Amino acid sequence: MTTTISVRKAADIPRYSIDANSASTHFSIPGSPAGVHERFGALSGFNDDVLGPSMATRPRMYAHVEIITYVVDGSYRHDDTLGSDFVLQHGNVERFSFGSGAGDMRKNDSDSSELRAIVLSIDARDRVGTPSIDHRSLERSAVGREQTLIDVAIDDTRTPSPAMSLHQRGRVAVGLPGGFGDRIRLEADYGAYIYAISGGVGVGDMVLAQGDVATVTERADLEIFGDGSAHALLVVVPLRNYEVATVPGTA
Fold this sequence. Notes:
mainly beta; 7-stranded mixed sheet; 52% strand; Jelly Rolls; 0% helix; 24 strands; single chain; 2 domains
């Protein structure tokens, strides 16, 4: 099977800076320049954020969306309208299901170091629901001699999984530095969004540099791999019908 892989280079993704904060913003935001991509199926937002020491985002309200935050470097303080207040460190990840409506604010908990976090939003399958939050640290799993991608969040209609529940039919996974290799099997109407947090991420016969994105929008069976410092994030989501019953992207 020949698979078409599209690559968007880091230099083609807008980066905004305000004071000591900056963000690589993959999809359109109000006031963004023409040509910014709108979305990728049910994946409606994707940012690579850097917050300066003690800096914070402004409080925001959301509804009917799942926001995944993966802490790449630094110390991240989460505060929300549910009364949660906790700190996540490098390698930690959280899933905030906003349900019918909730708000949050993100802050760099360090007064001396930058915070880098990948923040992505996925439209929820259900348009109602009670807000909820979950967080944990990533742990490697092994199959044979290869380290696999680690599932961060996965469709909550699946067989019980150690990953956090995702209220959409899809998958979010991370390939950690030190080496990883896994296969993606995509069904019709699903797409894969693969981001190189750091460079040297292989997708099929292509290699992504830091900040590059590869997308696959057709049925596919391909390998994702990396050695050394390579660090990757995979998102698999429905592209057209957000309530398709099949579960994609798993071996």
